[in-house]
Design brief:
The protein has four domains: 139 residues, Tetratricopeptide repeat domain (Serine Threonine Protein Phosphatase 5, Tetratricopeptide repeat), CATH 1.25.40.10; 87 residues, Serine Threonine Protein Phosphatase 5, Tetratricopeptide repeat (Alpha Horseshoe); 91 residues, Serine Threonine Protein Phosphatase 5, Tetratricopeptide repeat; 85 residues, Tetratricopeptide repeat domain (Serine Threonine Protein Phosphatase 5, Tetratricopeptide repeat, Alpha Horseshoe), CATH 1.25.40. It contains 27 helices and no strands. With 449 residues, it is an all-alpha fold. The N terminus is likely disordered. InterPro entries: TPR-4, TPR-like_helical_dom_sf, TPR_rpt, Ycf3. This is Tetratricopeptide repeat protein.
């Protein structure tokens, strides 16, 4: 928070009366030294003697805010706006405190008043930030546009372009960004947003050309962000991601994408190092989700469960899979309830079967199979039908499954069970032998009896 503490004014001189309390100079020295608790007490004592001391109101609010006592700081700055309604500092700092309290609407009101009193760059930026956090992207962009003057900084112009982009006004952001990169060619964030907008407008080749221009103008670690954008637009992103990550190991997105690519290629162990590096920098839900998937593939169910939980709702299916691997099948059933994906419903159907709830399993799996004709779903549906004694229906279903997947061992095994139940022993034995030859341990055990 920016501090606005005026120079120390002359102390009160009153008819030879001496005041033994702390001076403003002493209070400000405590504040500058980081002794916030004692600074608060000093400013409070000054205000107790004279509630009209502007510097003491301001210092008290700043000391409280720096000490993390935000509700008290809010009250202090609110009091300052009551006693000095025409002073910019009280309204601006009140807006800052409201932002830290997670109250963007109240912050926007305070910043609006600050803008009225003194239309500074920082006041407009504070107002736009508060409006953005309140979900009013268009209003944030309009506020920054109103405050745009020739002397505004590059940071202000970038904030305007970002606000226009967030408001869906991509075309309006483009001239702002071109003006910005021509004025300050080394500003990587401006080039990055420009390339992103061009790509989203269907101008991918132009976006790549602008990134080539940008990389000639930008130096140091800032180049990593541009290389990452190039990677996102390139058919061969791997070398670009590697270069970006080498330039800036703190660029978690590059590490995450390198890990994700390895995960998609089936190399869960190779993915793990990159994903853990990304997670250390920024534990984003998508990184946690990828870590959960990697650990699950590596057989580490405990870590898979932990990271899936951290991923929030998107991790519910992986969390259920990890719970199954940990033997907590009742918990897994609860986690899967309400998940609409076919994979989640397929797993839920299998767990219902294991729990002896065949009717529920059949009711769940039948529409899934009819929609997808997935052999695995068909096998589980047939297992449910066999458990319910609907053997003829199970036989027809399994023969259909085997037409699509003739090497599905579980289908042959279940077909053997259905035929055995129907009293067709010869056919049952042939089906079981086929299942055993395909690796079904259950079929092998049954044939040995």
């Amino acid at each position: 928070m920016k501090r606005h503490i005026p120079k120390v004014l002359s102390l009160l001189l009153g008819l030879g009366l001496a005041w033994a309390g702390p001076s403003l100079e002493e209070a400000e020295s405590l504040l500058k030294a980081g002794d916030y608790a004692r600074a608060v007490l000093a400013y409070e004592e000054i205000l107790a003697q004279d509630y009209g001391r502007l510097e003491a109101h301001l210092g008290l609010g700043v000391a409280l805010a720096k000490a993390g006592r935000l509700e008290e700081a809010r009250f202090a700055f609110s009091q300052m706006t009551q006693v000095f309604p025409d002073r910019y500092e009280g309204h601006f700092n009140l807006g800052q405190v409201y932002l830290r309290l997670g109250k963007p609407k109240e912050a926007a009101e305070a910043f609006s008043k600050a803008v009225e009193l003194n239309p500074t760059e920082e006041a407009y930026l504070g107002l736009a930030g508060a409006l953005s956090q309140a979900g009013q992207a268009r209003e944030a962009a309009e506020a920054l546009r109103r405050g745009l003057t020739p002397e505004r900084s590059s940071a202000y112009r970038l904030a305007l372009a970002q606000a226009l982009y967030a408001a869906g006004a991509r075309a309006e952001a483009v001239p702002v960004l071109y003006g910005l990169v021509n004025r300050e060619p080394g500003l990587a964030e401006a080039w990055d947003l420009l390339a992103r907008i061009l790509a989203e407008e269907g101008l991918k080749e132009r976006a790549l050309r602008e990134l080539d221009r940008a990389l000639k103008a930008v130096s140091g670690k800032d180049r990593a962000k541009l290389l990452l954008r190039q990677a996102l637009l390139s058919p061969n992103p791997e070398p670009l991601l590697r270069e970006a990550y080498a330039l800036d190991p703190g660029l978690w997105q590059a590490a995450y994408l390198l890990g994700q690519r390895r995960l998609e290629a089936g190399d869960a162990r190779g993915a793990l190092g990159f994903l853990q590096a990304a997670y250390r920098v920024s534990p984003e839900p998508e990184v946690a989700l990828a870590l959960a998937a990697a650990h699950l593939r590596l057989g580490n169910a405990q870590n898979a469960y932990r990271y899936a939980e951290e991923a929030g709702p998107p991790g519910a299916f992986l969390k259920a899979q990890a719970a199954v691997a940990l033997g907590r099948k009742a918990e897994a059933l609860g986690l899967l309830e309400g998940l609409a994906s076919p994979e989640a419903q397929t797993l839920r159907g299998a767990l219902l079967l294991e729990a002896g709830r065949a009717e529920e399993a059949v009711a769940l799996l039948r529409p899934l199979y009819e929609a997808s004709r997935n052999p695995e779903v068909g096998v589980n549906l047939a297992a449910g039908l066999i458990a319910l004694g609907r053997l003829g229906e199970a036989e027809l279903l399994l023969r259909e499954v085997l037409q699509r997947a003739p090497r599905q061992a579980a289908a042959w095994y279940n077909l053997g069970l259905a035929l055995k139940g129907l009293g067709r022993e010869g056919e049952a034995e042939r089906a079981l032998r086929q299942a055993a030859s395909l690796g079904s341990k259950e079929a092998q055990a049954l044939l040995r009896r």
